[in-house]
Amino acid sequence: MIRRILMENVGVVINDFTSIGDSQFEKVNRKKASFLKRDAKLLKVGATGKVHTIDKQLDDTEKVTYSVHYTYFIKHGNHYYLEEEVESRKAVYYGGVIYEDVEEPIPAMEPAMEPGVDEEEYEGGERLEYRYDRHAAVQYAEKWWNSYNPAYKKFENDCTNFISQCLHAGDAPMRGYPTKGKGWWMRNQSWSYSWTVAHSLRQYIPNSSVGLRGKLVESPDKLKLGDVICYDFEGDGRFDHTTIVTGRDADGMPLVNAHTYNCRMRYWNYEDSTAYTPNIKYKFLTIMDDR
Questions:
Q1: Alpha helices in 17-122 (DSSP H)
Q2: Per-residue confidence (pLDDT) for residue 171, from 0 to 100
Q3: pLDDT confidence bin for 274, thresholds 50/70/90
Q4: Which of 23, 49, 95, 201 has a beta carbon 3.0–4.6 Å from 28's, enabling a disulfide?
């Protein structure tokens, strides 16, 4: 019963994507506005749901956690592509009625620290030279965008951990172990701040001169596949989110994959996200070879 009612709610969201007028669902309004601004046409929407937990409370209400996997088939100019997104939600159910049904908030991040970039201090024998394999990084991002590689630790706020894995799959070498505030690395049950924290990775990449390194570019159209976008949703100077470029739309603008709220081929600016604010700031990082 709970599963059926939840999916009926999802069905309302799908139907409202093509209806005229405003919807009560913020997601619908944001998506509509995003597609309209880009002159993109949404041809078809699909969704599948999965209930994760049902916990009965003392007052006979039931708290439910579930996820919805949305697929958007988009036409933009002469370009067709499929955007996907997984939303984590929680609901309160009682007597055949859903009384609350909201998106789960983004989990708190590990506190950000500024990583050290004294490049003279690194372990002897560490491999630092590499040629960034953009194709391999994008392949990894496509393979694992909605699942988790068991070779790595999984975090509740997993966005930067996932992007670090993609960069490493592109042959960017780890360095700096075992100092958490230096280098960029993950080993066993330990990791550097730059590997897992969005703000730390944003600081690390453009300031590193050996191993993984990159440079800031002025606009998203300058990015290549396998490059990185960092997001400061509140515009307060602390970056909250990281994505990797995996495609382009008909205007040559980036489409990205990400974790935490898992998505693939999503338009880069995140204006359709509930985390978006008018104060949002971006940093665009292109990864450089180190040979």
A1: 26-38
A2: 97
A3: confident
A4: 23
Cα(209)–Cα(215) distance, rounded to whole angstroms? 10
The pLDDT value given to residue 271: 93
Give residue 122's pLDDT. 47
CA distance 174 to 190: 13
Spatial contact of 94 and 60, defined as CB atoms under 8 Å apart: yes
Q: Are 204 and 214 in contact (CB under 8 A)?
A: no
> Which amino acid, residue 237?
G
In this prediction, residues 44-70 reach a mean pLDDT of 90
Report how far apart, in Å, the C-alpha atoms of 231 and of each of 13, 48, 83, 121, 239 are: 27, 28, 20, 29, 5
Identify the sign of the CA torsion 12, 272, 69, 100: negative
Burial bucket for residue 37 (CB in 10 Å: 0-12, 13-18, 19+): exposed
Question: Taking the model in full, what pTM does it have?
Answer: 0.90
3-state per-residue secondary structure call for the chain: CHHHHHHHHHHHHHHHCCCCCCCCCHHHHHHHHHHHHHCCEEEEEEEEEEEEEEEECCCCCEEEEEEEEEEEEEEECCEEEEEEEEEEEEEEEECCEEEEEEECCCCCCCCCCCCECCCCCCCCCCCCCECCCHHHHHHHHHHHCCCCCCCCCCCCCCHHHHHHHHHHHCCCCCECCCCCCECECEECCEECHHHHCHHHHHHHHHHCCCCCEEEEECCHHHCCCCCEEEEECCCCCCCCEEEEEEEECCCCCEEEEECCCCEEEEECCCCCCCCCCCCCEEEEEEEECEC
Check pLDDT > 80 for residue 11: no
